[in-house]
Amino acid sequence: MRLVDGGAFSSYAHKEIGPGDELEVMTPAGRFTLPPAPGRYAAIVGGSGITPVLSIVSTLLAREPRASFCLIRSDRTAASTMFLEEVADLKDRYPDRLQLVTVLSREEQQAGLPSGRLDRERLTALLPALLPVERVDGWFLCGPYGLVGGAERALRGLGVERSRVHQEIFHVDAGAETVAAAPAPAHSTVTARLDGRGGSWPVEDGESLLDTVLRNRPDAPYACKGGVCGTCRAFLVSGEVRMDRNFALETEETDAGYVLACQSHPVTERVELDFDR
Ligand code: FES
């Protein structure tokens, strides 16, 4: 794990966790996946965003001979690139079905693309030159917010349907795109159901619904508290909330009534959440 400046968990992991320690981990949410199927797929990843994509590509190419993949990587320097050898091995194993494009933002490359950040403008020009954008069955975007947001806007501009784009953001700088605050009621109460047990608690001034629940139920699920991972997803049974930001839930999920508890603040005096749905 990389140490993120000011990162709560990465600082803890680097200082406190050592060989022999046991960690209890949650099962994967299973929302950023690609069940092997014939077709043409592509990924745009930045830094450690390669981690989930590497297993997606390896599994796909091993299990489905009629699938191909274009992997576009953005890293600062060759020395900081993760899984360099593993990706090179994959390219050797599937030279015809894996297209690999590496862009280094802070280092000149001997061959290939000029250095610089992969932003929306650059991707808009680059993608149609690399592959038939309209014939890609699934896009996988993974990395920091700036890269994923730029890639998503580039794809939208190129006419790619939203349903073909899957994304996972692992780091958002504070202050990125928050929603304007709606007036909050003077007093509000959240009722939450979690692991079959319910409870009702008053929401304290300014805190998120997740924090209210956590004060009373420390087993409430969360990981990033930044609107990125989706671990705190809950079904809004009744009442209304406003979310500061949402980089985790798809439109279908918010339309179906799901919210991120870590980003939710009550707009009505009573709000009911169900973490079990
Ligand atoms: S805890 Fe990660 S989105 Fe809420």
Automatic annotation (TrEMBL):
<dbReference type="InterPro" id="IPR006058">
    <property type="entry name" value="2Fe2S_fd_BS"/>
</dbReference>
<dbReference type="InterPro" id="IPR039261">
    <property type="entry name" value="FNR_nucleotide-bd"/>
</dbReference>
<dbReference type="GO" id="GO:0051537">
    <property type="term" value="F:2 iron, 2 sulfur cluster binding"/>
</dbReference>
<dbReference type="InterPro" id="IPR001433">
    <property type="entry name" value="OxRdtase_FAD/NAD-bd"/>
</dbReference>
<keyword id="KW-0274">FAD</keyword>
<keyword id="KW-0408">Iron</keyword>
<keyword id="KW-0479">Metal-binding</keyword>
<protein>
    <submittedName>
        <fullName>Phenylacetate-CoA oxygenase/reductase subunit PaaK</fullName>
    </submittedName>
</protein>
<keyword id="KW-0411">Iron-sulfur</keyword>
<dbReference type="InterPro" id="IPR036010">
    <property type="entry name" value="2Fe-2S_ferredoxin-like_sf"/>
</dbReference>
<dbReference type="Pfam" id="PF00175">
    <property type="entry name" value="NAD_binding_1"/>
</dbReference>
<dbReference type="InterPro" id="IPR012675">
    <property type="entry name" value="Beta-grasp_dom_sf"/>
</dbReference>
<keyword id="KW-0285">Flavoprotein</keyword>
<dbReference type="GO" id="GO:0016491">
    <property type="term" value="F:oxidoreductase activity"/>
</dbReference>
<dbReference type="InterPro" id="IPR001041">
    <property type="entry name" value="2Fe-2S_ferredoxin-type"/>
</dbReference>
<dbReference type="GO" id="GO:0050660">
    <property type="term" value="F:flavin adenine dinucleotide binding"/>
</dbReference>
<keyword id="KW-0001">2Fe-2S</keyword>
<dbReference type="GO" id="GO:0046872">
    <property type="term" value="F:metal ion binding"/>
</dbReference>
<dbReference type="InterPro" id="IPR050415">
    <property type="entry name" value="MRET"/>
</dbReference>
<feature type="domain" description="2Fe-2S ferredoxin-type">
    <location>
        <begin position="188"/>
        <end position="277"/>
    </location>
</feature>
<keyword id="KW-0560">Oxidoreductase</keyword>
<dbReference type="Pfam" id="PF00111">
    <property type="entry name" value="Fer2"/>
</dbReference>
